[in-house]
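Following the same procedure, the fold was encoded as C-alpha coordinates, giving this record:
***
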Amino acid sequence: MRAVAGEVISAGRLDLVDELFTPAMARRARRWIEPFLASFHEVRMEVVQLVEEGDTVVGRFSCSGTHAGRWHGVAPTGRRFEAVAEVYFFGFEDGRIASMWGLEDTASRLDQLGIASSDLRRA
Protein backbone atom coordinates (compact mmCIF):
# COMPACT_ATOMS: atom_id res chain seq x y z
CA MET A 1 0.00 0.00 0.00
CA ARG A 2 2.89 2.30 0.67
CA ALA A 3 4.07 1.80 -2.93
CA VAL A 4 0.62 2.69 -4.30
CA ALA A 5 0.36 5.84 -2.16
CA GLY A 6 3.98 6.94 -2.37
CA GLU A 7 5.12 5.80 -5.79
CA VAL A 8 2.03 5.50 -8.00
CA ILE A 9 -0.10 8.37 -6.67
CA SER A 10 2.42 10.81 -5.15
CA ALA A 11 5.28 10.24 -7.61
CA GLY A 12 3.09 9.49 -10.66
CA ARG A 13 4.82 6.16 -11.35
CA LEU A 14 2.10 4.60 -13.51
CA ASP A 15 4.66 2.07 -14.75
CA LEU A 16 4.26 0.29 -11.38
CA VAL A 17 0.52 -0.34 -11.77
CA ASP A 18 1.00 -3.61 -13.67
CA GLU A 19 3.43 -4.84 -11.02
CA LEU A 20 1.24 -3.97 -8.00
CA PHE A 21 -2.21 -4.94 -9.32
CA THR A 22 -3.61 -8.09 -10.97
CA PRO A 23 -4.15 -7.61 -14.73
CA ALA A 24 -7.92 -7.06 -14.40
CA MET A 25 -7.51 -4.68 -11.48
CA ALA A 26 -4.64 -2.83 -13.19
CA ARG A 27 -6.98 -1.83 -16.03
CA ARG A 28 -9.55 -0.52 -13.54
CA ALA A 29 -6.91 1.25 -11.45
CA ARG A 30 -5.54 3.06 -14.50
CA ARG A 31 -9.06 4.30 -15.41
CA TRP A 32 -9.15 6.04 -12.00
CA ILE A 33 -5.51 7.01 -11.41
CA GLU A 34 -4.59 8.46 -14.84
CA PRO A 35 -7.43 11.03 -14.99
CA PHE A 36 -6.91 11.94 -11.32
CA LEU A 37 -3.22 12.67 -11.87
CA ALA A 38 -4.03 14.61 -15.05
CA SER A 39 -6.52 16.75 -13.09
CA PHE A 40 -4.44 17.29 -9.96
CA HIS A 41 -0.79 18.26 -9.73
CA GLU A 42 1.53 18.15 -6.74
CA VAL A 43 -0.48 15.21 -5.40
CA ARG A 44 0.62 13.88 -2.04
CA MET A 45 -0.94 10.67 -0.70
CA GLU A 46 0.20 9.83 2.82
CA VAL A 47 -0.42 6.57 4.63
CA VAL A 48 -1.99 7.30 8.01
CA GLN A 49 -2.70 3.71 9.08
CA LEU A 50 -2.67 0.20 7.63
CA VAL A 51 -4.47 -2.80 9.11
CA GLU A 52 -4.10 -6.32 7.71
CA GLU A 53 -6.42 -9.27 8.16
CA GLY A 54 -5.81 -12.31 6.00
CA ASP A 55 -5.75 -11.28 2.34
CA THR A 56 -7.27 -7.87 3.09
CA VAL A 57 -5.50 -4.62 3.94
CA VAL A 58 -7.40 -1.56 5.07
CA GLY A 59 -5.63 1.72 4.54
CA ARG A 60 -6.40 5.15 5.92
CA PHE A 61 -4.85 7.90 3.82
CA SER A 62 -4.54 11.67 3.70
CA CYS A 63 -4.53 13.20 0.21
CA SER A 64 -3.58 16.68 -1.02
CA GLY A 65 -3.30 18.17 -4.50
CA THR A 66 -3.73 21.21 -6.73
CA HIS A 67 -6.63 21.33 -9.21
CA ALA A 68 -4.75 22.01 -12.46
CA GLY A 69 -6.80 20.12 -15.06
CA ARG A 70 -10.44 19.39 -15.93
CA TRP A 71 -12.00 17.06 -13.34
CA HIS A 72 -15.47 15.51 -13.82
CA GLY A 73 -16.31 18.32 -16.24
CA VAL A 74 -15.11 21.13 -13.94
CA ALA A 75 -12.47 23.52 -15.28
CA PRO A 76 -9.29 23.85 -13.20
CA THR A 77 -9.68 26.16 -10.21
CA GLY A 78 -5.97 26.38 -9.42
CA ARG A 79 -6.93 25.82 -5.79
CA ARG A 80 -5.38 23.23 -3.53
CA PHE A 81 -7.07 20.68 -1.28
CA GLU A 82 -5.24 19.49 1.82
CA ALA A 83 -5.51 16.43 4.05
CA VAL A 84 -8.63 14.90 2.51
CA ALA A 85 -9.37 11.67 4.39
CA GLU A 86 -9.68 8.41 2.44
CA VAL A 87 -10.21 4.81 3.56
CA TYR A 88 -9.75 1.87 1.21
CA PHE A 89 -10.08 -1.90 1.53
CA PHE A 90 -7.69 -3.84 -0.70
CA GLY A 91 -8.07 -7.54 -1.48
CA PHE A 92 -4.90 -9.41 -2.45
CA GLU A 93 -4.27 -12.45 -4.64
CA ASP A 94 -0.75 -13.80 -5.04
CA GLY A 95 0.71 -10.64 -3.51
CA ARG A 96 -1.05 -8.25 -5.92
CA ILE A 97 -4.09 -6.03 -5.44
CA ALA A 98 -7.11 -7.84 -6.89
CA SER A 99 -9.92 -5.65 -5.56
CA MET A 100 -10.46 -2.32 -3.88
CA TRP A 101 -13.32 -0.43 -2.37
CA GLY A 102 -13.17 2.89 -0.62
CA LEU A 103 -14.62 6.05 0.77
CA GLU A 104 -13.25 9.55 0.31
CA ASP A 105 -14.24 12.80 2.00
CA THR A 106 -15.39 14.29 -1.29
CA ALA A 107 -17.35 17.06 0.47
CA SER A 108 -14.13 18.35 2.05
CA ARG A 109 -12.28 18.17 -1.29
CA LEU A 110 -15.04 20.06 -3.10
CA ASP A 111 -15.32 22.66 -0.35
CA GLN A 112 -11.59 23.35 -0.39
CA LEU A 113 -11.62 23.63 -4.19
CA GLY A 114 -14.68 25.92 -4.17
CA ILE A 115 -16.72 23.47 -6.28
CA ALA A 116 -20.41 22.74 -5.71
CA SER A 117 -21.34 19.06 -6.00
CA SER A 118 -23.96 20.02 -8.60
CA ASP A 119 -21.10 21.23 -10.86
CA LEU A 120 -19.68 17.73 -11.20
CA ARG A 121 -20.55 15.74 -14.29
CA ARG A 122 -21.19 12.16 -13.32
CA ALA A 123 -19.07 9.80 -15.37
